[in-house]
């Protein structure tokens, strides 16, 4: 990824059934959340849907820092804080929805995609091999219905990436989708590529 004059280029992207891809440049404001002045353009492309599997909130892995290169408990709590309190996505108020549960298969799909984007230096919901998020979820062992994917680059913390997604209408809508009841999130081993995959259990 290109970095100019110490400016961190922050780009996010979301898929919700048919994908809506949002690329946004954000100038840091010297805070830990990198929530500075928003700008940028929107691009749209298409992506597939998918299926899902049912796991409990702590299916596999340990609490706290995990092999998904993030603090699982922290990031899940941040997502569920927004879901259970309700929030505003763009100009639309979103009522509270039920808390979402962690799923390791979705997190594995998220980790594989984050690491692949980092290793091959690209940023897209479509993998270099042509894969869609729903296919990657199935390949990771997920047996339910994948409902959406968010991706981001450049954030240094769980708080920052969730804040960025919630401040972007499409990504926020994805997080607040009441049809989704399972989630997996992962960060690349290096490079701060983030992927969130959501699903609905059978």
TrEMBL record:
This is Transporter. Residues 29-68 are annotated as: Disordered. SUPFAM superfamilies: PR-1-like. It comes from Microscilla marina ATCC 23134. Residues 76-194 form the SCP domain. The keyword RNA-binding does not apply. Residues 42-54 have a biased composition (Acidic residues). Gene3D superfamilies: CAP. Residues 1-19 form the signal peptide. PANTHER family: SCP DOMAIN-CONTAINING PROTEIN. Keywords: Signal. It holds the Pfam family CAP.
């Amino acid at each position: 990824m290109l970095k100019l004059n110490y400016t961190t280029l922050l780009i996010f992207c979301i898929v919700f059934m048919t994908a809506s891809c949002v690329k946004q440049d954000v100038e840091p404001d010297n805070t830990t959340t990198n929530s500075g002045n928003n700008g940028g353009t929107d691009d749209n492309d298409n992506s597939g849907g998918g299926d899902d599997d049912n796991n409990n909130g702590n299916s596999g892995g340990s609490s706290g820092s995990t092999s998904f290169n993030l603090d699982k408990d922290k990031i899940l709590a941040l997502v569920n804080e927004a879901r259970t309190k309700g929030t505003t996505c763009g100009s639309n108020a979103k009522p509270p929805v039920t808390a979402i549960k962690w799923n390791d298969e979705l997190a594995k799909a998220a980790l594989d995609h984050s690491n692949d984007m980092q290793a091959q230096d690209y940023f897209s919901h479509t993998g270099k091999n042509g894969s869609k998020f729903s296919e990657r979820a199935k390949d990771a062992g997920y047996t339910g219905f994948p409902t959406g994917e968010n991706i981001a680059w450049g954030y240094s913390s769980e708080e920052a990436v969730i804040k960025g997604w919630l401040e972007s209408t499409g990504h926020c809508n994805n997080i607040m989708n009441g049809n989704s009841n399972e989630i997996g999130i992962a960060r690349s081993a290096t490079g701060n590529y983030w992927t969130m995959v959501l699903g609905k259990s059978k």
